[in-house]
Amino acid sequence: xxxIRNVSKWYGQTxxxxxxxxxxxxxxxxxxxGPSGSGKSTLIxxxxxxxxxxxxxxxxxxxxxxxxxxDLPRLRARVGMVFQHFExxxxxxxxxxxALAQVKVLGRSKEEALARGAVLLDRVGLRDHAxxxxxxxxxxxxxxxxxxxxxxMDPICLLFDEPTSALDPEMIGEVLDVMVxxxxxxxxxxxxxHEMGFARxxxxxxxxxxxxxxxxxxxxxxxFDAPASERAKTFLSRILxx
Amino acid sequence: MNYHWNWSIFLEQVxxxxxxxxxxxxxxxxxxxxxxxxxxxxxxxxxIVVGALRSTPSRLLVAIGNAWVELFRNIPLLVQMFLWFFxxxxxxxxxxxxxVKQEMPAKEFVTAALCLGFFTSARxxxxxxxxxxxxxxxxxxxxxxxxxxxxxxxRQVLLPQALRIVIPPLTSEFMNVFKNSSVxxxxxxxxxxxxxxxxxxxxxxxxxxxxxxxxxxxxxxFSANRGMAWIEARSRVPGLxxxxx
Lengths: 242, 245
Ligand SMILES: Nc1ncnc2c1ncn2[C@@H]1O[C@H](COP(=O)(O)OP(=O)(O)OP(=O)(O)O)[C@@H](O)[C@H]1O
Ligand SMILES: [Mg+2]
Prior knowledge:
The structure holds two protein chains of two kinds.
Chain A: E1 2-11, E2 14-24, E3 29-33, H1 40-47, E4 55-60, E5 63-64, H2 72-77, E6 79-82, H3 94-104, H4 110-123, H5 139-151, E7 157-161, H6 169-184, E8 189-192, H7 196-202, E9 205-210, E10 213-219, H8 220-225, H9 230-240
Parallel strand pairs in A: 3-8, 3-9, 6-7, 7-8
Antiparallel strand pairs in A: 1-2, 1-4, 4-5, 9-10
Helix pairs in contact in A: 3-4, 3-5, 4-5, 5-6
Chain B: H1 21-54, H2 59-73, H3 77-91, H4 94-102, H5 107-133, H6 137-145, H7 150-165, H8 167-180, H9 192-203, H10 206-234
Helix pairs in contact in B: 1-2, 1-5, 1-8, 1-9, 2-5, 3-5, 5-7, 5-8, 6-7, 8-10, 9-10
The complex binds adenosine-5'-triphosphate and magnesium ion.
């Protein structure tokens, strides 16, 4: 589904991605982790073309992201993305947030979009909040709306960039529950996260990054039980201590 | 002060016709309103587009937007009025030039509205660019990630938020348009300041004249202020507080 081959990226002189290769097969969950500044966000944003990359190729469902001829908006409409800071549109109600791209991009009617939105809101446990505005919701509720907004586009895969790291601890669970459910239903997911419990539960593989490099790309069990590199060992011991 | 006050001067007939001085001032007020509102509509449209261009990732679009802003921001408004009125028509193709000089209806008004509109648009563009720039980068990403095109992202997501943020500076621009419209007397638009000068010379009651005109300008600018405050209240979003990340 997602194929990343030898991708490199420079900001001027500094290299932020170094020959990164990995893949996510259909129905698979892959977790990406690594220290701050290691290039996780950059990598995941390359997948839907929010960040251009300098070298290499990325294909999603056979469509080349870096190809100038690719209709990026069309590709992005099929790839859902969930952000660290939710990024709901604050000037729109929850139901408008869910309906916007369905109407403007997929060409659904307003009624159809609202109905689809209502189903998804119900699914993330927020049926009663459709007419509220993002600023009136807690962080955990906002992130669940953001997931519903991505799902409303009927995506072929979902990208997550640290979806729980801006949340208060007591709200992390409600968001992870939704993500676990999606994974168990067979959604293809690429998740940047440091929630190792989540990784153990649903991830097929863990990708460990450091300094723009993919240092390890291993099956989940192997990664946790016997990380091959010193850097991954240090990283794991640091985050598992909390 | 040895001044002969005459507050009933406004109801007296002008020396050269059967209108009253009040008629003159009201005509002036009408042109001032027409000029200011036309210029404002133009300025808002162009200002939003140019401001949006300047906030895009495209260097070319940014350069075009910057050039527009610098062009109108660095020349005094009065000089711009003269430039548009006397100089620009000379540089048009010959047929257009003749048409503008001889046949264009309401030549002074159209010139003044364009000039004031362009001048104000440069200032609005600056506000709009700053407004879009103040939004978190993630808003653009989120809009694009949903499959919206860049123009759609601006139209649906970025500009509605940016415009709410810049309502306070836009309010002073709107008030400035009324005040700046007085410069149009210099090219012969029959607006309020033009009529005031004419009344002063005709009636020799300069103090009453200018006090009345002062009051009329004050009412215009104050109404503009109240109107924008009403829009601001109506567009307020429940639960929205400025985010700091
Ligand atoms: N616009 C930019 N210009 C220059 N360097 C940048 C830019 N954006 C990111 N970087 C650099 O790229 C590197 C990777 O950033 P990235 O955000 O992908 O890291 P990350 O792994 O997501 O970190 P975090 O865990 O803090 O989110 C960092 O060293 C960062 O400083
Ligand atoms: Mg990041």
